Amino acid sequence: REFEALDRGNLPCAYSFQKEKPLPGKMVIESPSDKKDLAKVQYMFQIPSKNHEDGPAIPFLESILTAFPYGLLVEQLREKSCLVYSLKSSTSGHEETRYLVFEYTLPKKDLDVSLDIVEGCFSRLKKGDFPEELLSIMKASAIPGIFYKYAQPGWIVEELFSRVHGQKRGIDISLIDLTRKAISTTKEQLVCVANKYLTPERIVWLQK
């Protein structure tokens, strides 16, 4: 597996609630404290800011993997293999330091099978082995939220905030331009972004 050799003790820590030295071990796997027969799996990737040139494609990267019921991980882990009931995904962090997180919990006996499936889905996405219609579905799902956002007066404040922070990093692009760029994301661009960010070099762990 592409991520199998990663040692949590050698990985950069996203942010820490403790000052103790990280314990060595598999970075993506831990057992919930009250359920030792379960394994919680988490992949946490460093991603660019929203107004980075790759930023607009990140939400579609997330949704193509985890959106119900069409996402690749949902299809393979839940619908076909019946290994998990739910998958969680999110983007978090600050404007300049952001993370894309995928996580799920399942019985330990199914752990190895699930890791093979996850990395197989990552590989499919990075090879472009998914129907282009899937990206069209994700774009169509995003449009109502876009209309709602720009109907609210608060978007102007967000626009100014984004421009100020973008200019500090040499990026001068408006939220409206970012939205247009997101909706015009092609399958080829999505594959390129997947190959850039869904890699062992981009993975970090969250010390708790």
Describe the fold and architecture.
With 208 residues, the chain is an alpha+beta fold. 43% of the residues lie in helices and 17% in strands. It contains 7 helices and 6 strands, in the order E-E-E-H-H-E-E-H-H-H-H-H-E. It has helices at residues 58-66, 72-80, 111-127, 132-151, 155-168, 175-183, 187-197, and strands spanning 13-16, 29-30, 38-47, 88-93, 98-107, 205-207. The strands form 2 sheets. Strands 2-3-5-4 form a 4-stranded antiparallel beta sheet, covered by helices on one side. A two-stranded parallel ribbon has the order 1-6. Helix 2 (72-80) runs antiparallel to helix 3 and helix 3 crosses helix 7. The protein is globular. It starts with 12 loop residues before the first strand and ends with a strand.
Helix share of residues? 40-55%
- Which residue ranges are poorly predicted, with pLDDT under 50 across at least 5 consecutive positions? 15-28
The first-to-last residue Cα distance is 26 Å
- Would you list the SSEs in sequence order as H and E? EEEHHEEHHHHHE
- Spatial arrangement of strands, main beta sheet: 2-3-5-4
Rounded Rg: 18 Å
Structural class by helix and strand composition: alpha+beta
Q: Sheet with the most strands?
A: 4 strands, antiparallel
- What's the β-strand tally? 6
Assembly category:
single chain
What fraction of residues sit in β-strands? Answer: 15-25%
